[in-house]
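Hello again,

I reread your note about wanting to compare the complex against the isolated chains. To keep things tidy I'm splitting this into two emails, and this first one only covers the full assembly. Below are the input lines as submitted, including protein chains and any nucleic acid or small-molecule components. They are followed by the predicted structure of everything together. The single-chain runs will come separately.
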Amino acid sequence: MKALRHFLFSPAAVLGLLLLIGIVGLAIFADLLYPRDPLALAGRPLQWPSLGGRFLLGTDASGRDIAAQIAHGARTTLLMGMVSTLIAIAIGIVVGALAGFYGGMTDDALMRMTEAFQTLPNFILLLVLVVVVGSNMTAVTIAIGAVSWPAVARLTRAEFLTLRNREFVQACRTLGLTNRWIIFREVLPNALAPIIVYGSVVMATAILLESALAFLDLSDPNIASWGNLIGQGRKVLRSEWYVSAIPGVAILLTILSVSLVGQGLNDALNPRLRGR
Amino acid sequence: MSSIPTLLILLAGLFVLLQFAPGDTVDALMAQMGGGDPATAAELRRFYGLEGSAAVRLLDYLWRLVRLDLGFSAIYNKPVATVILERLPATLLLMFSALSFAFFAGMLLGIVSAQRVNGWADTLISLLGLVFYATPSFWLGLMSIVVFSIWLAWLPPGGFQEIGAGLTGIWLVLDIARHLVQPTITLSLIFLAIYLRIMRASMLEVSTLDFVRTARAKGLRQGEIIRRHVLRNALLPMITLIGLQAGTMLGGSVVIESVFSLPGIGRLAYESVVQRDLNTLLGIVFVSAIMVICVNFVVDLIYARLDPRITAGAS
Amino acid sequence: MTPLVRIEDLSIALPGGADRPYAVEKLSLTLAPGEIVCVVGESGSGKSMTASALMGLLPTSLPVRGGRIMLGERNILGLSEDELRAIRGPEIGMIFQEPMTALNPLRTAGDQIAEMFRAHTKLSKQEIGARALKLLDEVGIPEPASAYRAYPHELSGGQRQRVMIAMALALEPKILIADEPTTALDVTIQAQILTLIRDIQRRTGMAVLFITHDFGVVAEIADRVMVMQHGRVVESGTVGDVLNDPKADYTRALIAAVPSITPPPPRVLPNKTIATVRDLSKTYRTGGGWFGRQRRVTYAVKAVDIDLPSRATLGIVGESGSGKSTLARCIVRLLDPDHGTIELDGVDFGKLGGETLRRHRHLVQMVFQDPYASLNPRRTAGDLVSQGLVARGVKQDKALARAKELFTLVGLDPSATDRLPHQFSGGQRQRIGLARALALEPKILVADEAVSALDVSVQAQVLQLLVELRDRLSLSMIFITHDLRVAAQICDRIAIMQRGEVVEHGVTAEIFAAPKHPYTQKLLSAVPGRVNAVEMSR
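Full-complex prediction:
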């Protein structure tokens, strides 16, 4: 695999990958590291972080262990980010593929819809959805997926539009292959690389959306979440600023790792950079 | 412009969706009043036009939208249009300043980066771009408040202007500007990162095109080649991006306005979610969509001016 | 006369991992005032590198490893960037292959010519405007004043190349480098541009270094010729010597591969027609959509009648925009015609739709132009050839076995079926495309510019193969081409298309001997090298 070798030769991509693996590890082993409920009272409130102390990252205003919330929050963030990204990519591919492959009226109708979705600011649309479907974790994940697909649809459509007119696709049509065969076995595999790369952007945005929602106290209140912790820390920002600062760094590192991996993938998969 | 009919359909969809929302304005009001009997609730519902079948209310709603009547806000006890208009200036100002800052700073950094591709300046700028891109704006806002408002006490921690200071003229302008520095920068950094990345890529892409080779064969200086041949072509994708990002930026202002207690429509959106003021929320959706459409219209005009191959109006 | 330019032992390295160490190796060349020197070679021969090196425009990935390029007393390879800038434009002008992409799309033609003066002279604005206008007039652009204000996309291909020439000649350089300046142009436009370059060269006495792959063009314009292969000069001399009496085997092979413009005597064909097209029209609508903006309707193909005799080759010849490719795509039903009938082997092919159409698609198959774009890069060659059979219900292993037979048939190694397309050369890829088309055992084969993207020597082999297979498999063929030489050699009958209509059709030999329609006459007289050395050498 030339692409894999290319990826592993880029220090930035490898750094991002290691970071991501670390965060995924934290999410997986959260229960082992911090078996207690991260949202339960753990000790005296507002203890500063200390290396030797009982609480590595201190406690928040309600006396909850920040380190435990970070570990369990990693799980929330990654799971929500991944699932909503998958939802967005699935919707985006279907809409974009249909529009790009069939063109004409189908394209017109689907693209008008996509445009309209892009015209509504995604965070405000998300607020409306949260009002309607409520703020449990499943609902929020689906809502984030439902507001993130338009860009994927546009990208997929653009890929399909150029591929549809490529001679190898036309050759398949003269051979009498079915549209389903052509879409899934000829066009989609060739369009997939940029869409997968774009997935990292969608995931980064999804994580930001979720944390912003949790920051505003509009996400699931029963689950440990980085955004929510930042919001809690706001009340004690003047003196105990670490309560907000620590989860923010966690979000930053997560998005950084996702973007680095995405960029590495892009460089590795983008044939234009590697030449023919 | 052609997206307006679709937009109306979408708004109708949202309206129907909101009918399924648990709890309405009256529930919120009753909760505020500390509870009450069902008769009062029914009375209030009649008063705010919340009774009747969903279909009737949908038609009523659409008809009102066409007349630009956004309904009545029970929470603020004013027409929704008035509530939104009061909050619009702060948001418009924030959007304009953040967009300008992100665009021009991103463009400049992108140009510098592309000029010194793979040099230390390029690496540094790209690294900064990555970090900006990965930083949640609301968190950055909080940290900025800690540093610049609490520790250094250089900038006000929030608000749109000094309340009760009675400033006028240039002093009022300066005061508002001072209040907008932190919100503008925190809101724009993520967009700055995007613009910088696109500008850099676009410059590098255009530099490989045939007409740049022609320009070199004409014996032009490097500066002239960049200024006269690369720059304008490289700006085209940036212009497109403004239109695509307008909605996202407006969404971002919801959190930023909440962090810095700015009286804009972003914060209004948040408040109306908390207070279940669905009329106001729908009004905001409508107004923000109109704003995005306006931005896109201007973007199309600019694009058509920059690119002779496109005639204005045709997308 | 003392030469203006002396290139001595120039060597340019290729980056590591290439198939040879040098792009150009030990190349020597002189260019004297008043002469046109053609550098000829197939793709990858290093001819364009030589031109770039002369301008000091080589990319940094291709460093010069030895030799000198003397411009008068100065060695171009040793000059600073500032000194080079003073040479580019005032002393050496250059024009390129693609006039569309070689001009900045966002600035007017006049502005881009005027820039030459602004960069190198201190003339006033009015003076510059007047000079640029005069130049546009000199290169024969109709209405120079409106062309001055026009953006590149508003000009035709030929006009854009004239703008490029005006720009290159603005400061009256002593040397003009022309890098395949007519390759992207239609044959009639090519003839005009060649005439223009020769006229200007005669008038000003400048020296021209002309890069081309086309021996017809060489015969048309060159005083001296240099033939390159794999970065080395294999032969050089006066145009008469090289074309009439080539010394090197490679030159001989190249010249022999150029098809003759004189068709062979007509073959006797069975009196049976396998394909009939009647009154076929295809229009394109631009604009429109749901919320109807202004619609424009243009005819790509207009009321075309065609008859394809069984086992014959019908050539459809035309320039770009003539509708020949649209016609081909209508016949194989990649496009739906708006009007007219297509009858193939007794089947009313034009009326079929959906499932019935898919079942009848094996009747007619197509070979495409681009050897790179026409094969899915992710599928093995065997897959590509066998997938049509698999779709028709043939078992995977049987289909693959058939693919191997087809590989042998088109002259490929049958053990290569598990390779991916990028592991084949351009000519081999075209053979894979041919095998794919033949897999369904079609009655009719449509070849859409199937050899245009290939080098002459490879082109000759593929043409040979097409003719062989046609006769062996009793195929009938529709051959779309812009190249009259190819049409002359391969087609029994031809139809000449212009602006969507067939203006003349008949037996090839008769049309070439006595073209009736003025457009056909113009087209035939524009073929480069028609009456010059290439023909005489036969």
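For quick reference: The radius of gyration of chain B is 24 Å.

B.
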